[in-house]
Amino acid sequence: xxxxxxxxxxxxxxxxxxxxxxxxxxxxxxxxxxxxxxxxxxxxxxxxxxxxxxxxxxxxxxxxxxxxxxxxxxxxxxxxxxxxxxxxxxxxxxxxxxxxxxxxxxxxxxxxxxxxxxxxxxxxxxxxxxxxxxxxxxxxxxxxxxxxxxxxxxxxxxxxxxxxxxxxxxxxxxxxxxxxxxxxxxxxxxxxxxxxxxxxxxxxxx
Length: 206
What we know:
Blueprint: H1 2-19, H2 23-35, H3 37-59, H4 62-68, H5 70-93, H6 100-103, H7 112-121, H8 124-133, H9 144-170, H10 174-177, H11 180-202
Helix pairs in contact: 1-9, 2-3, 2-9, 2-11, 3-7, 3-8, 3-9, 4-5, 4-8, 5-11
């Protein structure tokens, strides 16, 4: 059954990709430990919304433009690097010292859904990954759009399960992780990680 084989192979590959530590994992872990599980869930939903939008772009041929156009790739790449650098510098230079807004049910200081989504949308390597990776698992003669969305949905589901596991893992240590010094350290550490990813993205090639 080639259909089942393709789905199993893609699920295995997507799981390995999701479990590989990267920006998404760092973002979810930081948000869960510093701002709580609700904000971390918003970040995870934003990240995966970005994946769905990239999947739509690939399904309708827009992602191919990023794959073949050096100008389009570089433009999006540098925008993404600048965005990550901005996030990283803010965390590094202005780390939090408390969670008063989150703990008292006040309005969150950051829209992590939007930040998670933008972090993915401004990374052209995700689009190129989908363009080069997804077709390998689409059976010949099958509808491209339907299969693309189906495979991306599997990737998103795996990503959400992984995010939930990360968020759940932080909860037993919530009391320690939410101390003032730990919060400041987490923000600054994540800021450095974001800056490193920004540099990595800026110097990356197709």
